[in-house]
Amino acid sequence: MITVSDTTAITTLLKAGQEGLLRELFGSVVVPQAVWDELSVFHPCLPEFLFVQSISARGQRLPGTELLGLGEAEAIQLAKEIPADLLLTDDRKARTAASGLGIRCAGLLAVLLEAKTKGRVQSVRAAIEEIEKKGGLYLSNSVKNEALKFAGEQ
After folding, report:
1. 65-113 pLDDT, tens per residue?
2. Cα–Cα distance for residue pair 15/2, rounded to 1 Å
3. N or C: which end of the chain has fewer CB within 10 A?
4. Does the domain made of 1-154 have the CATH classification 3.40.50.1010?
5. What is the largest CA-CA distance in the chain?
């Protein structure tokens, strides 16, 4: 499975010490140069399962990505070019743009649900608390409750 990610999913898991979930679930994750650069600012040592790949037309944006951050826009463009099986992003506007371009998206909660299904985490609730507390990710109660319902933890 070819997986592309924007910055948020990776940096959140790095801060929470849970980046290994990405390797365990996807093997490797591909990021565009803009995401690699953003990650490198805050994380001087990036995991070996991350691979940087250039997009074909830097500076040109796909329709619907004009107002997104550079990392999100390049991740969408890379996911379209490769083509990727999955784009990891928690940005609502990025998901809308990517979906409009036919790119399948998932966020960190989907990663946690998949990790529970595969026995990589025992409790989605505990994992959510960890990424909120240590990773700095904000999730509304309604979003968390929906994930917990899917995980059978409500």
Report:
1. 999 999 999 999 999 999 999 999 999 999 999 999 999 999 999 999 9
2. 24
3. N
4. yes
5. 46
